[in-house]
What we know:
- The protein is of the alpha+beta class.
- Helices cover about 25% and strands about 30% of the residues.
- The longest helix has 18 residues, at about 45-60.
- It is globular, with a radius of gyration of 17 Å.
Amino acid sequence: MAGQLLTHKFTTQQYHLMHEAGVFGHGDRVELINGEITEMSPIGRKHAACVIRVTKLLQKKLDDLVLVSVQNSIRLDDGSEPQPDFAILKPRDDFYAEALPTPADILLIIEVADSTIAYDREVKMPLYAAAGIPEMWLFDVNEQVIFGYSQPATRGYKKMQRYEQDDNFFMLAFPDISFSWQELF
């Protein structure tokens, strides 16, 4: 008879206690997804360049309308604390020093993928949708395509839009501010 593997699901509180106790080394890239501690992929050159370009563009276009959180944790529930490449947040006077952003604070999530497209699409995207985050953009830096997801539901986003060269698109929260594929790639 084969033995059964036992797993332990962690809460966000336990995850934070592990950080404070030094369980993770300085520079370890980990996140809590559905109660499991997941090692994040190293950031490649194309990924880093895209994050730098998008950071500059978001700051320029959205200015004081939002807070742009780059590669920082958000708290979705008691078992998930991912680190999206971008969380576009509602402004708050404390800049989220008192508590991590939650789905109610998040206007848009952006994930940039060079080697993690399947993970971002199959694991993180449904997690963001189930949490009720209104919109997610997924940048595929290898194919140079942007996927826009909206209308969150418990099993994922109901609407998907693909943006390629010469396409323009808008953030749901600010439909009067346009973005173009050329600006982002």
